[in-house]
Amino acid sequence: MGNVTLVRMAVSQDGTPSGRSTDDYLAVLGDPNRRVVVGVLAETDRPISISSLAREVAAETQNASPDAKIAQTKLSLHHNHLPKLDAAGVVTYDSEERLVAPADGFETALSAVELAN
């Protein structure tokens, strides 16, 4: 008998399969900054600016609020974390408008974050 691989598929907010495995979400959520992004978005009901998001992430992950830490976090979010979360279908990131909002895979990602905590 050959090897059998079990892949659980994540579902979109509307209940349809997202085409991504749960492992894909877990991989992108391996970074604490990305988990904080998901947590912050879960607490708001509208898109959030990258500046507001950077303040929240810096306060949560670096236990600091100096402007330099916020600016560094904002750059890291813009160039690293938000593009990865966007590519994974967790958030939508409009880099021109500098706004972040939940995407179809957000609920699955939020469930994974809640389980990890």
TrEMBL record:
InterPro entries: DUF7344, WH-like_DNA-bd_sf. It comes from the Archaea. Pfam families: DUF7344. Residues 27-100 form the DUF7344 domain. It comes from Halopelagius inordinatus. This is DUF7344 domain-containing protein.
